[in-house]
Amino acid sequence: MVRRQGSVRVRLRRTVAGGARRAGRWYGEGPLHLLLLVASFALTGYVGVRLLADAQWPLVVVWFVGAALLHDLVLVPLYTVAAQAVARVTAGTTRHRAWTGYLRVPAALSGLLLLVWWPLISLGPGSAAAAHYTLTTRLPSEVFWARWLLISAGMFALAALWLLLRTLHTWHSGSTGQPRLRAETARRRWWRRRRSTKSRPPNGS
User: Fold this and answer.
1) What is the number of alpha carbons within 13 Å of residue 66 lying toward its C-beta?
2) The pLDDT of residue 129
3) Longest C-alpha distance within the chain, in Å?
4) Average pLDDT of 135-156?
5) Torsion of CA 114, 119, 124, 130, to 10 degrees
6) Is the Cβ–Cβ distance between 79 and 73 less than 8 Å?
7) Which class for 100: exposed (0-12), middle (13-18), buried (19 or more C-beta within 10 A)?
8) Intra-chain end-to-end CA distance of the chain, in Å
9) Has residue 156 got a pLDDT over 90?
10) Helices (DSSP H) in 94-127: which residue ranges?
11) Region 92-106: what's the mean pLDDT?
């Protein structure tokens, strides 16, 4: 009876493992990726339901469509031109791709934040939309522009700091790597000469 239960458990484990492997080959990623994807879809659906439940849902749809068109028709060409300009400016250096990467990432994140929060960033201090936002949410409406600037400056500063640390690390590795390599090469040569001297027969033999 115990052996039969053990064999059933082993078969069940093998079946589950085989099914997981087949599902992984069919899906192409791991179960954690699938879980995060399902959670993101659920969160997006919840936000969409909350947004579209308002009486002003046509304005939300128009804003989403307009943002998509603005991104594809205006922002993407600007991204391309800016990336090419930065690549040309830093083309004389040996690591221009790394330099452009440290500019592209904060610039892309800053542009994404601007695109997402533009309805609140563009609110005027004394406009009717700002007054409606403050009346509805009980929050100030004039802080988004300054916060976006601060967040963008912080991302660029973090990228510059990371680039500086990486440059210093590379410089330190390059300055200390050559003496270590030379010392290691000299040590190997000394050991080879010593072995050859020991294995050499004496002159009287």
Assistant:
1) 10
2) 73
3) 109
4) 87
5) -140
6) no
7) buried
8) 80
9) yes
10) 96-116, 118-121
11) 70
